[in-house]
Write a structure and sequence with these properties.
Blueprint (H helix, E strand, L loop, with lengths): L6 H16 L12 H4 L6 H20 L4 H16 L2 H15 L3 H9 L5 H19 L3 H25 L12 H4 L4 H12 L2 H4 L2 H23 L5 H20 L8
Helix pairs in contact: 3-4, 3-8, 3-10, 4-7, 5-6, 5-7, 5-13, 7-13, 8-10, 8-12, 8-13, 12-13
């Protein structure tokens, strides 16, 4: 990326590059495809979460006008998966396959590279989706919509934080996540944090339980990755997003009477 490029244009390109990488949404042709554009773009990950969460929330609210809550939640979940191309869900399946089936670090990393889904990954993905749908349909649609926006944004902020705290695990070989690993600064964390915290204000008290649970899940996941892999991979960060999003929902609805929702 040229040094003389204006800061505003550079950030706009980074935002579009993040949208291009993390979603299936089209971006202007002049953005192109460049690893250089992805460097420094990681702080827009919670912004992507806001986009995905708002899309899921809108789908859920519209769907609840037509169908029972469970159907609306399932349609909403399918919409967010289509929007992201199942990027994070694929990461969850691959990471759990690797950690569950690999006895050593190298074995785990090799299994994560295998495009075939194993038993561990399939079970983890199925259970995660089941729990997510169960959490969202257990509350009123309006509150579920708020949970979606907050959960998608905050879990992606957790990914940024993990990437700042952990080294990149793969020393060699091609990786789509490598460009992001090269620039996770304190500024990136601050910008990502602002985008993640903003929607929490709409939730009120449940946001504390959700954020706390997501932070605990993220911390445990980070410790596991450090011990088993010596760092993170793209798949493990996709898994982290899914686990922290689920943790957010579980924490937000924990021990709350139905009338409060």
């Amino acid at each position: 990326m040229p040094e003389a490029m204006p800061a505003a244009r550079r950030e706009l390109i980074r935002l579009f590059a993040a949208i291009q990488f993390f979603t299936r949404l089209p971006v202007p042709a002049w953005v192109g495809h460049s690893e250089e554009h992805l460097r420094g773009a990681i702080h827009y990950l919670p912004v992507i979460g806001l986009m995905v969460g708002c899309t899921g929330a809108a789908t859920l609210l519209l769907g609840s006008l037509l169908w029972p809550p469970l159907v609306a939640v399932v349609v909403s979940s399918a919409t967010t998966i289509l929007l992201t191309g199942a990027l994070h869900e694929d990461g969850l399946a691959d990471a759990i396959d690797g950690l569950g089936g690999g006895q050593t670090r190298d074995q785990a990393l090799a299994i994560m590279k295998d495009p075939r889904a194993g038993v561990f990954g399939a079970l983890a993905l199925g259970l995660a989706l089941l729990l997510k749908v169960s959490c969202l349909q257990a509350v009123l649609p309006a509150r579920a919509a708020q949970l979606l926006v907050s959960g998608h944004a905050f879990s992606r902020f957790g990914v940024v934080a993990l990437m700042a705290c952990l080294p990149y695990a793969r020393a060699t070989g091609a990786s789509r996540a490598r460009p992001f690993a090269q620039d996770v600064s304190s500024l990136s964390i601050a910008v990502a944090g602002l985008a993640a915290i903003a929607p929490l204000t709409l939730l009120g008290t449940p946001a504390l339980g959700g954020a706390g649970a997501a932070a605990v899940v993220g911390g445990i996941w980070g410790l596991l990755l450090r011990r088993r892999l010596g760092g993170y991979t793209g798949d493990s960060m996709g898994a982290g997003q899914q686990l922290m999003e689920l943790g957010f929902y579980l924490g937000a609805i924990a021990r709350l009477p139905s009338w409060a929702w």
